[in-house]
Backbone:
């Protein structure tokens, strides 16, 4: 982002709002918060995030909704500081790791197979929603510049498939739908951010050329693609040479910021650079990381993404309270906000359905007559994909990064907040019901390529392991040297193959087996802790044996899934 976008924005994290919308005196003591005070406040927010996450799970609410509502509730507490955030700081702190994490965990094969549909959703759908929201905003708020309307459209355009995935993880869907939703979350973020960048520059400079913007967009995307691949290749080579897991995890944590900042510095798209680097690294992860590094890397990133996403949701709730305070006692909300925001929310919801109806209709029309789905599957697909338009963390990060000089900045932030709240609460809590009503949960295998089940794949893996052990179990003279291992792997292969054919009948015995195994692991862990607490073993022995028990427990818990 251009440095000029942040001009006029106080970089201090917490600031006292003065002037015509002066905040009540209860905040005066918080106005000049020290660095220690800011750090303590962020720690307090993280503690509250943990509590809000537990409440969301208890009430079976979408976590994003609980966090946003919690942010508002926190802001209403007397004495809580009003948050003012440096726009450039938001983009560079929050976006790169979230983008790379989403790309890293993408299913590469499915992503490549459905690339055309993903581009149609991410680029075409994002541009269509941006245009629809821009036109509606200009009609509802005539004095708002066209470029600002386009910026708002780009902010609310990208659906957050991470939120959709969290909602849908217990509801099976056809592979095509799942892949489209997950792939969309990667590319629509990049497309919307580039559109937002152009629109913001147009607002701040007052000039915009379609031809120049199109050419610039092409070179930004191409530069991001090339630089992302190059950075990922360099990182993979470095990681292959660094065999220390702490250093390799640290290097991987640095990659999103290196990619984002590097892309921006050389004139490419930092967003596309980060996404491409994450895709390539995720594709090669099985060659780059050892099992131990991969387990630890995934755990570190899971915590990092959780904290960053949660902080963004809480911060938008607190920021909304600051907007209300600035306009307290004025008819601004009723006269200038309610009607435009309601219209923008309606356009965001309807535009996705319109786009899905048009694009899926065109796709089906070009299919051979024998492969065309019936009316019910067609409308089921449109209904589910249209209803999976929950907005989330990317929209929040962008709207928090709006320059202070942006016209109608407060309305844009409120509109984005309401769009997120409506989609997360409305769509997120009812998508399971929509899937059941359309029948896609029952007919999820229709029209998609057959894949092996988990039990079938385990049986094939167990047979290959048994075959390898048979070749290693005998010495050159024919004498068996690994009889115990051969017996163990032969038993595993026989049991896995039998279970793959009689899963229903043997499920109870399998679960009982793994529960018994978990009980023995618990007993071993208790004895290990007793030996350590009585001083009979060293800490190094404790950590080594505890790691072995952890791996055994992970295997047993995986068997119960």
Residues:
């Amino acid at each position: 982002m251009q440095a000029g976008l942040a001009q006029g924005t106080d970089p201090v994290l917490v600031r006292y709002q003065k002037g015509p919308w002066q905040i009540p005196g209860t905040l005066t003591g918080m106005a000049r918060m020290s660095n220690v005070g800011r750090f303590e406040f962020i720690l307090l927010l993280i503690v509250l995030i943990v509590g809000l996450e537990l409440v969301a799970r208890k009430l079976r609410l979408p976590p994003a909704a609980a966090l946003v509502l919690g942010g508002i509730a926190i802001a209403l507490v007397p004495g809580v500081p009003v948050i003012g955030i440096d726009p450039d700081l938001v983009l560079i702190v929050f976006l790169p790791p979230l983008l790379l994490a989403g790309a890293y965990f993408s299913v590469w094969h499915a992503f490549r197979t459905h690339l055309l549909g993903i581009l149609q959703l991410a680029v075409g759908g994002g541009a269509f929603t941006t245009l629809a929201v821009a036109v509606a905003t200009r009609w509802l708020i005539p004095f708002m510049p066209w470029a600002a309307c386009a910026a708002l459209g780009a902010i609310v355009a990208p659906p957050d498939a991470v939120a959709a995935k969290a909602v849908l993880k217990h509801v099976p869907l056809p592979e095509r739908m799942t892949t489209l939703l997950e792939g969309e979350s990667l590319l629509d973020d990049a497309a919307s951010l580039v559109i937002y960048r152009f629109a913001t520059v147009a607002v701040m400079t007052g000039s915009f050329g379609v031809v120049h913007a199109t050419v610039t967009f092409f070179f930004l995307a191409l530069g991001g693609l090339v630089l992302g691949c190059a950075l990922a290749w360099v990182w993979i080579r470095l990681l292959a040479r660094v065999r220390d897991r702490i250093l390799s995890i640290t290097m991987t944590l640095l990659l999103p910021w290196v990619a984002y900042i590097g892309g921006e510095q050389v004139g490419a798209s930092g967003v596309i650079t980060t996404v491409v680097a994450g895709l390539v690294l995720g594709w090669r992860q099985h060659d780059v990381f050892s099992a131990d590094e991969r387990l630890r890397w995934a755990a570190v990133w899971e915590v990092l993404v959780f904290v960053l996403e949660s902080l963004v949701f809480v911060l938008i709730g607190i920021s909304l309270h600051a907007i209300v305070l600035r306009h307290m006692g004025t008819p601004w909300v009723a006269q200038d906000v309610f009607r435009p925001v309601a219209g923008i929310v309606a356009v965001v919801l309807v535009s996705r359905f319109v786009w899905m109806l048009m694009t899926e209709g065109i796709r089906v029309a070009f299919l051979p007559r024998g492969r065309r789905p019936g009316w019910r599957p067609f409308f089921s697909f449109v209904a589910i994909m249209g209803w999976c338009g929950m907005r989330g963390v990317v929209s929040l990060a962008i709207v928090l990064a709006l320059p202070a000089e942006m016209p109608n900045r407060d309305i844009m932030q409120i509109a984005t907040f309401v769009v997120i709240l409506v989609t997360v609460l409305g769509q997120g809590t009812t998508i399971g019901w929509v899937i059941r009503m359309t029948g896609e949960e029952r007919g999820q295998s229709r029209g998609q390529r057959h894949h092996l089940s988990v039990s079938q794949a385990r049986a094939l893996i167990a047979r290959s392991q048994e075959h390898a052990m048979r070749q290693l179990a005998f010495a050159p003279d024919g004498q068996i040297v690994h009889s115990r291992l051969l017996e163990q792997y032969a038993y595993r292969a026989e049991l896995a193959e039998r279970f793959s054919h009689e899963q229903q009948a043997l499920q109870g015995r399998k679960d009982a087996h793994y529960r018994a195994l978990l009980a023995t692991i618990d007993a071993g862990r208790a004895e290990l802790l007793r030996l350590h607490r009585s001083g009979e073993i060293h800490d190094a022995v404790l950590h080594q044996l505890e790691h072995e028990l952890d791996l055994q427990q992970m295997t047993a818990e995986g068997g119960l899934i």
